[in-house]
Amino acid sequence: MQPRPPIVLERLRRKVLGPLFDRLGYDLVPASPDWSHRPTSPREVTRLLDAAADTLRADLSASGLGADEDVRAIVETFWHLIPTAPVRQRRGGSGFNGALQLYGAMRVLSPRFVIESGVFRGLTTWVIRQACPDAQIFCHDPDLSGLQYRDPRARYSRDDWAGADWSMIDPAATVAFFDDHVSQARRVVEAHARGLTRLLFDDDVAAHRIHAHGGPAYPTIAMITTLDGAPEPIRWIRNGRPFEQPAEDAGAREAASLIARSHAFDDMHGATGYSPARLTYVQLHGGGS
């Protein structure tokens, strides 16, 4: 389990710093991940794991991903594994639900190569390594200064993944995971051109829910797959600031034509009580240039 903050610092936060930040309109909370809060009675743990397994099993099936392993066993393994994660994060990145979905999907997909675009502090790299201990992982992020976990066997680059030479990998044995806040339509087109067909996207938020998200990619898979004949600009307000995105991204229709199947996983909040996840699996038509 994650260590508790020192008592003196916790008292300082509650009695002095917390009220000060509250008057300024901010919340000051400990940087403890959501999985540090968990049920401990066997009955409630069993209920949580059963509910999570049922949800994950349904999502894997809807994605066309048949699991050779027992999904309930995958969830229980993850439950005992996640407290050992070397990354502490509360804001940004994946929480329990997102990490569980990524872990389960990677276990079922079982790739030999993984391309990860968007690394942040390194939690998802660690999750991928736990799920695929023998995979070759390629991590791309323009800013690697915030890493709390660096995989000793992964290859790191600050360059965009699309500019790399991928001649050494087998596209059919590769999964690409995108959590980089770049147009998901662009990522679909780039992946298809390189022969990749199995993609995972984080932060796939629908247009009518974009106001509740800090900075999503645009357009997302949800927006790409719901294009209609009369698009209009997407406008919203967040933290008092107005935002607007154009009616349709130039590559959205091309990306839509390349998608053979997509499925947005359940956010799992109802099953586990943890922060909602936004993972989507995308299967492309056979690609390559």
Could you give a quick summary of the protein structure above?
This is Methyltransferase. The protein is an alpha/beta fold and 289 residues long.
List the topology elements.
Layout: H1 7-23, H2 42-62, H3 71-81, H4 96-109, E1 113-117, H5 123-131, E2 136-140, E3 155-157, E4 174-178, H6 184-193, E5 198-201, H7 221-224, E6 234-238, E7 241-245, H8 252-258, E8 259-264, H9 269-272, E9 280-284
Parallel strand pairs: 1-2, 1-4, 2-3, 4-5
Antiparallel strand pairs: 5-9, 6-7, 8-9
Helix pairs in contact: 2-3, 3-4, 4-5, 6-8
* SS content category: alpha/beta
**The CATH class:** Alpha Beta
Oligomer: single chain
Low-pLDDT stretches are: none
Kindly report the average pLDDT value. 88
Shape: globular
Number of domains: 1
Total of DSSP H or I helical runs spanning 4+ residues = 9
CATH architecture grouping:
3-Layer(aba) Sandwich
Give the SSE string. HHHHEHEEEHEHEEHEHE
User: Beta-strand percentage?
Assistant: 5-15%
Give a quick account of the main beta sheet: strands, pairing sense, barrel closure.
Answer: 7 strands, mixed
Relative helix content: 25-40%
Q: What integer value in Å does the Rg equal?
A: 20 Å
- N-to-C CA distance: 48 Å
CATH superfamily: Vaccinia Virus protein VP39
Organism: Methylobacterium persicinum
Protein name: Methyltransferase
